[in-house]
Amino acid sequence: MGLLEGKTALIFGLANKNSIAWGIAQAFHREGATIGVSYAGEVLKRRVDPLAESIGCDFVEECDVSKDKDIAAVTAKAEERFGKIDILVHSIGFANRDELNGPFYNTSREGFHLAMDISVFSFVALAKAFQPLMNPGGAMISLTYHGSVKVTPNYNVMGVAKAALEASTRYLAYDFGPQGVRVNAISAGPIRTLAAAGVSGFKSMYKAFIDMAPLHEKVTIEDVGNAAVFLSSDLSARTTGEIFYVDSGYNIMGVPDMSEE
Fold first, then answer.
1. Which residues does the record give as NAD(+) binding sites (predicted)?
2. 109 is annotated as contributing to ligand binding
3. Which of 39, 145, 245, 250 is catalytic?
4. Is 174 marked active-site?
5. How many CA atoms lie within 13 A of 46 on its CB side?
6. For 85, phi and psi rounded to 5 degrees?
7. At 186, which helix (H) or strand (E)?
8. 27 — phi, psi (to 5°)?
9. Can 145 be counted among the known catalytic residues?
10. Domain map (residue ranges) of the chain
11. Is 193 marked within a binding site?
């Protein structure tokens, strides 16, 4: 019997086979969850549909999380289909590509608002929309990155957005506590996803991460999926408001090892 047997999970932010959301969907499927997925736009449908079909998921809905009417529509469809849900995953982040290089002070007002709206407020909006549908003992998970607490060159406005996302996770954990719903965030190490491709210098950062992390191992979408299973299962029944690092230990390091062999 799987760890998520009998639980229903909705995963927002599936884009392709390299998505962290896909790693989570596969892990949830393995552990017996009933799964629904959402994607950001029509252009992604041809990639998402085959993935969903491969895990027996037939609840596949487009949702522009910057639009309240889209969120309301998906919520209504989920209620009609599932009644209640147990797990809500927010694997969404976006900033304009030209905001992800050069000095942070060049961030535009419009770009700042866009990054905060899609990367942060959408989690709050989804939590509010699905609050009446969440079963006691349920879980909400967002995806963050270490650039929220330490400077990652060129990550810029996304680092600020992730900091706000982590703060929002804590406030939501407080709000949902009386309902018996846990809210946590997973801070994953750098993974070659569609979103990561937009960050200038990502390839160099990726190599430096492996050299500096204590385990000297890359992080995979499967690793994040397994962490999400833990945070969504009864094994984490008393864990909420936490930032759960899946980064080969990178976040504990202050400086790289400069000793010569």
1. 13, 19-20, 64-65, 92, 162, 191-195
2. no
3. 145
4. no
5. 1
6. -130, 165
7. strand 182-188
8. -65, -40
9. yes
10. 8-246
11. yes
